[in-house]
Amino acid sequence: MTDRAALAALTAEIVACRRCPRLVEWRERVAREKVARFRDETYWGRPVPGFGDPEARILLVGLAPAAHGGNRTGRVFTGDASGDFLWAALHASGLADRPASRRADDGLTLTDTYIAAAVRCAPPANKPTIEERDACAPFLAREIALLTEVRVAVALGAFGWDAALRAFAELGHAERPKPRFGHATEVAVGPYTLLGSYHPSQQNTFTGRLTAPMLEEVLGRACRLVEEIGRTTGAE
After folding, report:
1. Domains of the chain
2. Residue among 135, 119, 117 at smallest CA distance from 127
3. Closest Cα partner for 124 from 200, 205, 20, 40?
């Protein structure tokens, strides 16, 4: 069983993090200056922790919070177009109790699923530096170690793919040569299976590079995998 107290302590540590001066300055400036459509809202303006079912068998790994999405709402993939696309797919796959989420306090719940970002602060132009990536990396490895039921990870984009592989390596499960990212790519890494999906960014969804059926198929594969693992474990 997941140590929920330890997971809550890690969440608090993530939220309090100020390791990266450029990201701290950017996230806080965005929270002060806002944009016109959200001018009456109070922005979160801090690192965004993971969210979901502590007993999840499926972990989703994204890139980073959006400046006016997670950096505003305080919950990953909440309040922006990428989140709208993702929640709809999670709901269609039976992993979320509703198809949309605009606020962190809207009561949305995930089943068997936990979502985290490789970088916890909103980066300028959605591009963290290598140093910022590396400063944040231990959080994901520690999260995975605490989420003891996780068996399948779904990387949303190449950045999330690389972050998941680095986290697995930190936990003693390195793959050489490094598996290459691709949509619907599947690779076994120690006790985990890593699946790839294009990121649900507007750049991908508006151009049709990623469609709802494509994302739902990857999520469906994740669901089938954990069920297969569960049957095998039960048989043993």
Report:
1. 4-235 (3.40.470.10)
2. 119
3. 20
